[in-house]
Backbone:
């Protein structure tokens, strides 16, 4: 493991398809259907007024859909890199147990030793970061890959490589 | 914060007086009373056969007594150092939410940004580590302080400074 490059892999918006659930909840609570075009460039909390309440509800993170392709590609990456899944989760105590159980269910090849829940990703030593939020990417000292989600889709002048899908991450890191 | 030295502060056996609860549970389950003398030098799991079951029970970490002096001294340290509370907790999913709520209750001056739950403390960058377990202390690159608990009391030939109490930590770091 000592010679492997360490990759920090974010959960929400990277492994966990939170937007999928946000759209569903918004529709069920308001009766109005939002599309990607409606919310491109908006922060998550601007796009979905219910968000702060949803993410603080026990059970919310237990059943989020898995991001397409993430299980297959992360399993491949796990053979060549020192993978650490890192989530900013300590703001929401109820989310912690839900997130760990979700990872155990959906990414059983990621052991408990490879998981971090924290309030500041910049204290973790690593070589590569895969994340959707500039607050994490901009302060990271290694290589950065910005996973594209509606809130960051319009950000063009960043130093971060972009990946629209896990297939693109596979091309960037495994080809 | 950039100029402050970062201290990693362990929870179990340092902030949380887990032995206090271990003695209580052992007595209530077996009817026999253990004393410190009975278990000095034994690993926690050797001293308390019920331990593996106890720590995996939801609620166990929610009501652990606070280590004597830890609230007062950690509050003082929090003004002079970049404090990060770090617990190896991802092995036990149910413990995560309990531990976060326990910290919020008992150490309200520690914000969610200063908390890490992980499976490997050696990926976190810091200057000083306060911990009771050699598995964490021996691999840490900075200054180490071994908080004395029954399982490590007899370990004499370690490179780590020893602290028998939070008053001693206060002397080591604040005088």
Residues:
């Amino acid at each position: 493991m000592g010679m492997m490059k360490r990759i920090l892999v974010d959960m929400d918006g990277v492994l966990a398809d939170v937007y999928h659930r946000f759209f569903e909840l918004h529709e069920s609570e308001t009766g109005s259907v939002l599309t990607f075009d409606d919310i491109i460039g908006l922060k998550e909390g601007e796009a979905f007024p219910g968000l702060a309440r949803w993410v603080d509800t026990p059970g919310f993170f237990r059943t989020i859909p898995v991001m397409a392709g993430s299980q297959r590609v992360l399993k491949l990456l796990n053979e060549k890199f020192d993978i650490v899944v890192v989530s900013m989760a300590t703001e929401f105590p109820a989310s912690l147990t839900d997130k760990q159980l979700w990872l155990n269910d959906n990414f059983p090849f990621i052991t408990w030793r490879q998981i971090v829940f924290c309030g500041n990703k910049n204290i973790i030593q690593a070589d590569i970061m895969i994340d959707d939020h500039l607050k994490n990417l901009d302060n990271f000292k290694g290589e950065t890959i910005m996973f594209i989600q509606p809130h960051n889709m319009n950000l063009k002048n960043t130093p971060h490589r972009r990946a629209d899908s896990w297939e693109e991450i596979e091309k960037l890191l495994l080809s």
Summary: Chain A touches chain B at residues 6, 84, 90-91, 93-94, 96-97, 100-101, 104, 111-120, 123-126 (CB under 8 Å). The mean pLDDT of chain A is 96.
